[in-house]
Amino acid sequence: MRALVLVAVAVLVSACAGATEPMTDPEVPLFSTPAPPGSLEGRAVPKTCAEVATLEEIGTILGTLVTGDPHPVVGVPQENIGRTARLDCYYGVPRGKPRTTATVWIALATYTDAHWAQRRLSNTVDDERASGARVSDVPVGPDRGVLLRGKTWMLVAVRGSTTVVITVQPNLVREDRAGAMLGQLADTALTPG
Protein backbone atom coordinates (compact mmCIF):
# COMPACT_ATOMS: atom_id res chain seq x y z
CA MET A 1 0.00 0.00 0.00
CA ARG A 2 2.83 2.31 0.91
CA ALA A 3 4.43 1.73 -2.49
CA LEU A 4 1.19 2.67 -4.21
CA VAL A 5 1.00 5.96 -2.28
CA LEU A 6 4.62 6.75 -3.16
CA VAL A 7 3.95 6.09 -6.84
CA ALA A 8 0.93 8.39 -6.77
CA VAL A 9 2.91 11.17 -5.06
CA ALA A 10 5.73 10.77 -7.59
CA VAL A 11 3.29 11.09 -10.49
CA LEU A 12 1.76 14.22 -8.99
CA VAL A 13 5.16 15.82 -8.29
CA SER A 14 6.36 15.13 -11.83
CA ALA A 15 3.15 16.54 -13.30
CA CYS A 16 3.47 19.71 -11.22
CA ALA A 17 7.14 20.06 -12.06
CA GLY A 18 6.31 20.18 -15.78
CA ALA A 19 3.75 22.96 -15.33
CA THR A 20 4.95 26.52 -15.75
CA GLU A 21 3.79 29.34 -13.56
CA PRO A 22 2.57 32.53 -15.20
CA MET A 23 5.25 35.20 -15.46
CA THR A 24 2.89 37.99 -14.40
CA ASP A 25 -0.65 38.31 -13.16
CA PRO A 26 -3.15 38.46 -16.01
CA GLU A 27 -4.47 41.94 -16.75
CA VAL A 28 -8.00 42.71 -15.73
CA PRO A 29 -9.86 43.83 -18.86
CA LEU A 30 -11.33 47.32 -18.89
CA PHE A 31 -14.79 47.64 -20.35
CA SER A 32 -15.95 50.83 -21.91
CA THR A 33 -19.63 51.48 -21.47
CA PRO A 34 -21.76 53.74 -23.61
CA ALA A 35 -22.73 57.10 -22.18
CA PRO A 36 -25.85 56.83 -20.03
CA PRO A 37 -29.08 58.36 -21.31
CA GLY A 38 -29.21 62.08 -20.76
CA SER A 39 -25.43 62.37 -20.61
CA LEU A 40 -25.13 64.97 -23.34
CA GLU A 41 -25.40 68.63 -22.52
CA GLY A 42 -28.95 69.86 -22.19
CA ARG A 43 -30.22 73.16 -23.49
CA ALA A 44 -31.55 76.23 -21.79
CA VAL A 45 -35.30 76.74 -21.93
CA PRO A 46 -35.90 79.11 -24.85
CA LYS A 47 -38.03 82.24 -24.72
CA THR A 48 -40.48 81.28 -27.50
CA CYS A 49 -42.23 78.19 -28.86
CA ALA A 50 -40.70 78.87 -32.29
CA GLU A 51 -37.32 78.07 -30.68
CA VAL A 52 -38.68 74.76 -29.35
CA ALA A 53 -40.19 73.62 -32.67
CA THR A 54 -41.91 75.42 -35.51
CA LEU A 55 -45.22 74.36 -37.03
CA GLU A 56 -43.30 73.46 -40.19
CA GLU A 57 -40.89 71.20 -38.28
CA ILE A 58 -43.75 69.49 -36.47
CA GLY A 59 -45.68 69.01 -39.73
CA THR A 60 -42.63 67.61 -41.52
CA ILE A 61 -41.78 65.17 -38.73
CA LEU A 62 -45.34 63.99 -38.16
CA GLY A 63 -46.22 64.03 -41.86
CA THR A 64 -49.36 66.07 -41.28
CA LEU A 65 -50.35 69.72 -41.30
CA VAL A 66 -50.55 71.33 -37.86
CA THR A 67 -52.09 74.81 -37.94
CA GLY A 68 -52.83 77.62 -35.52
CA ASP A 69 -50.64 79.86 -33.42
CA PRO A 70 -48.60 78.14 -30.72
CA HIS A 71 -49.80 78.95 -27.22
CA PRO A 72 -46.88 79.33 -24.77
CA VAL A 73 -47.16 78.94 -21.01
CA VAL A 74 -44.08 79.99 -19.06
CA GLY A 75 -43.52 77.93 -15.94
CA VAL A 76 -41.85 79.08 -12.76
CA PRO A 77 -38.89 77.61 -10.92
CA GLN A 78 -39.89 75.00 -8.37
CA GLU A 79 -37.19 74.44 -5.77
CA ASN A 80 -38.78 71.36 -4.19
CA ILE A 81 -38.30 69.39 -7.44
CA GLY A 82 -35.10 71.14 -8.58
CA ARG A 83 -36.77 72.86 -11.55
CA THR A 84 -35.13 76.09 -12.69
CA ALA A 85 -37.25 76.95 -15.77
CA ARG A 86 -40.10 75.60 -17.92
CA LEU A 87 -41.88 76.43 -21.16
CA ASP A 88 -44.98 74.58 -22.36
CA CYS A 89 -45.93 75.00 -26.02
CA TYR A 90 -49.37 74.02 -27.28
CA TYR A 91 -49.62 73.59 -31.07
CA GLY A 92 -52.68 73.05 -33.25
CA VAL A 93 -55.14 74.81 -30.96
CA PRO A 94 -58.32 75.61 -32.94
CA ARG A 95 -59.19 79.32 -32.97
CA GLY A 96 -61.27 80.29 -29.96
CA LYS A 97 -60.69 76.97 -28.18
CA PRO A 98 -58.75 76.37 -24.94
CA ARG A 99 -55.15 75.20 -25.17
CA THR A 100 -56.20 71.80 -23.79
CA THR A 101 -57.54 71.08 -27.30
CA ALA A 102 -54.01 71.25 -28.77
CA THR A 103 -53.05 68.39 -31.06
CA VAL A 104 -49.37 68.62 -30.02
CA TRP A 105 -47.95 69.76 -26.69
CA ILE A 106 -44.19 70.11 -26.05
CA ALA A 107 -42.81 71.02 -22.63
CA LEU A 108 -39.14 71.78 -21.97
CA ALA A 109 -37.84 72.16 -18.43
CA THR A 110 -34.40 72.58 -16.90
CA TYR A 111 -33.30 71.34 -13.49
CA THR A 112 -30.43 72.08 -11.15
CA ASP A 113 -28.65 68.92 -12.33
CA ALA A 114 -29.09 65.72 -14.36
CA HIS A 115 -30.13 63.79 -11.24
CA TRP A 116 -33.24 65.97 -10.74
CA ALA A 117 -34.06 65.80 -14.45
CA GLN A 118 -33.85 61.99 -14.46
CA ARG A 119 -35.96 61.83 -11.32
CA ARG A 120 -38.70 63.90 -12.98
CA LEU A 121 -38.64 61.60 -16.02
CA SER A 122 -38.96 58.54 -13.79
CA ASN A 123 -41.89 60.09 -11.89
CA THR A 124 -43.71 60.89 -15.15
CA VAL A 125 -43.19 57.36 -16.49
CA ASP A 126 -44.34 55.82 -13.18
CA ASP A 127 -47.49 57.98 -13.14
CA GLU A 128 -48.38 57.12 -16.73
CA ARG A 129 -47.69 53.42 -16.22
CA ALA A 130 -49.94 53.45 -13.13
CA SER A 131 -52.68 54.92 -15.35
CA GLY A 132 -52.36 51.97 -17.71
CA ALA A 133 -50.02 53.36 -20.39
CA ARG A 134 -47.88 50.95 -22.41
CA VAL A 135 -44.18 51.78 -22.10
CA SER A 136 -41.32 51.30 -24.56
CA ASP A 137 -37.77 52.59 -25.03
CA VAL A 138 -37.05 54.65 -28.17
CA PRO A 139 -34.09 56.59 -29.62
CA VAL A 140 -34.02 60.36 -29.19
CA GLY A 141 -31.04 61.51 -31.24
CA PRO A 142 -27.97 60.15 -29.42
CA ASP A 143 -29.99 59.47 -26.27
CA ARG A 144 -32.95 57.28 -25.32
CA GLY A 145 -36.47 58.27 -24.39
CA VAL A 146 -39.58 56.57 -23.08
CA LEU A 147 -42.63 56.27 -25.32
CA LEU A 148 -45.94 55.95 -23.49
CA ARG A 149 -49.23 54.98 -25.08
CA GLY A 150 -52.28 55.80 -23.03
CA LYS A 151 -55.13 58.04 -24.12
CA THR A 152 -52.53 59.98 -26.12
CA TRP A 153 -49.02 59.33 -27.35
CA MET A 154 -46.42 60.70 -24.94
CA LEU A 155 -42.65 60.73 -25.09
CA VAL A 156 -40.38 61.80 -22.24
CA ALA A 157 -36.62 62.19 -22.48
CA VAL A 158 -33.69 63.75 -20.66
CA ARG A 159 -30.57 65.39 -22.06
CA GLY A 160 -28.22 66.62 -19.36
CA SER A 161 -30.34 68.66 -16.97
CA THR A 162 -33.12 69.29 -19.51
CA THR A 163 -36.31 67.28 -19.89
CA VAL A 164 -38.80 67.19 -22.73
CA VAL A 165 -42.35 65.88 -22.62
CA ILE A 166 -44.25 65.57 -25.88
CA THR A 167 -47.92 64.69 -26.08
CA VAL A 168 -49.60 64.04 -29.42
CA GLN A 169 -53.20 63.15 -30.19
CA PRO A 170 -53.38 59.51 -31.31
CA ASN A 171 -54.88 60.26 -34.73
CA LEU A 172 -51.74 62.18 -35.79
CA VAL A 173 -49.33 59.24 -35.78
CA ARG A 174 -49.40 55.64 -36.89
CA GLU A 175 -48.72 53.00 -34.26
CA ASP A 176 -45.67 51.64 -36.09
CA ARG A 177 -44.12 55.09 -36.58
CA ALA A 178 -44.93 56.78 -33.27
CA GLY A 179 -41.58 56.06 -31.60
CA ALA A 180 -39.52 57.30 -34.55
CA MET A 181 -41.66 60.41 -35.09
CA LEU A 182 -41.86 61.48 -31.46
CA GLY A 183 -38.19 60.62 -30.93
CA GLN A 184 -37.24 62.92 -33.79
CA LEU A 185 -39.52 65.66 -32.49
CA ALA A 186 -38.01 65.34 -29.00
CA ASP A 187 -34.49 65.55 -30.44
CA THR A 188 -35.49 68.71 -32.32
CA ALA A 189 -36.84 70.27 -29.12
CA LEU A 190 -33.75 69.29 -27.09
CA THR A 191 -31.28 70.62 -29.67
CA PRO A 192 -30.58 74.36 -29.52
CA GLY A 193 -31.28 76.00 -32.87
Number of domains: 1
Instruction: State Rg.
Output: 28 Å
What is the spatial order of strands in the main beta sheet?
A: 1-2-3-7-6-5-4
The amount of beta strand, in percent, is 25-35%
CATH architecture: 3-Layer(aba) Sandwich
- The CATH homologous superfamily is named PknH-like extracellular domain
**CATH fold label:** Protein Transport Mog1p, Chain A
Could you state the order of secondary-structure elements as H and E? Answer: HHEEEHEEEEH
End-to-end Cα distance: 89 Å
Number of strands: 7
The profile of the biggest β sheet is:
7 strands, antiparallel
CATH class: Alpha Beta
- Overall geometry: globular
| Overall pLDDT confidence | 84
Secondary-structure class = alpha+beta
Which parts are unreliable, with pLDDT below 50 for 5 consecutive residues or more? 1-39
Helix percent reads 25-40%
Query: How many helical stretches?
Result: 4
